[in-house]
Design a protein that fits this description.
This protein is α+β, with helices and mostly antiparallel strands. The protein has five helices and nine strands; from the N terminus they run αααβββββββββαα. It has two domains: 124 residues, no CATH class; 94 residues, no CATH class. A seven-stranded mixed beta sheet has the order 1-7-3-4-5-6-2, with no helix packed on it. A two-stranded antiparallel sheet has the order 8-9. The protein starts with a helix and ends with a helix.
């Protein structure tokens, strides 16, 4: 990805912007991969199809989807895993009387929704629906007073490891991120290999804009071919 970045930013067989350092290239690649996942999985302007608009979209981020996180619900709160990034779907397992472990769909609500006071929108054991909101402690599940949320399972997009080529920086000693974390060795992108060139194209576009390069529009046009802009 470093080689691809340099060849695309510098133009083929040139050293026009050779002064970009490894930590700077790493920073742009990570900015690009984060933007790539957000555009594919969770755009701000939500559509009814979610991120599964096509098989290609599903394949683009399949390696960062965790669909097997299950935990006991404590005081109607499901604690989020350490690598949590974005919620996709969830199931709560409810108990009511002798009925044990009945699955219900977790429906995420807005904080200002009056869902629990509505007979049509409240959580329901019979309709297998559990309303939930996000809080600082995790996902707060609701009940109607007749059942209990015992455990829940969610699918989510996990955080991305920081791409870096620290072993090639100043004799292999690594470097520190602005947070102070020391990076050594290397970390490849964990997204599927077929996305890597598109991520590099995004990184190059971001860098070209920051550097105010004259061919910014050309690089932007290339992203349009992949519907990434």
């Amino acid at each position: 990805m470093h080689y691809d970045f340099k060849s695309k930013l510098n133009k083929i067989d040139s050293q026009q912007t050779r002064n970009l350092k490894i930590p700077e290239i790493d920073w742009k690649l990570n900015e690009a991969q984060e933007l790539f996942v957000k555009m594919v999985a969770k755009p701000r302007l939500k559509n009814s199809l979610g991120f599964e608009t096509s098989q290609r979209s599903i394949d683009d981020i399949r390696t960062v989807v965790n669909d097997s996180y299950c935990l006991t619900v404590v005081n109607n709160v499901l604690a989020l895993p350490g690598d949590y990034w974005h919620f996709l779907s969830g199931t709560s397992y409810m108990n009511k009387g002798e009925c044990v472990e009945f699955p219900a769909t977790i429906t995420i609500r807005q904080h200002d929704d009056d869902f629990e006071n509505s007979p049509f929108d409240c959580s329901s054991f019979e309709w297998r629906v559990v309303n939930a909101i996000f809080t600082k402690d995790g996902i707060k599940l609701h009940d109607d007073g007749t059942f209990t949320n015992k455990r829940a399972c969610i699918s989510y997009i996990k955080t991305l490891p920081y791409i870096h080529n620290a072993e090639s920086w100043r004799g292999g000693g690594g470097y520190n991120l602005p947070s102070g974390e020391l990076l050594t060795g290397t970390q490849d992108c964990i997204l599927p290999a077929h996305t890597h060139r598109e991520i590099v194209d995004l990184a190059v576009l971001i860098a070209a804009g920051d550097l105010q390069l004259p061919d910014y529009q050309v690089k932007q046009a290339k992203l349009n071919l992949n519907k990434l802009n």
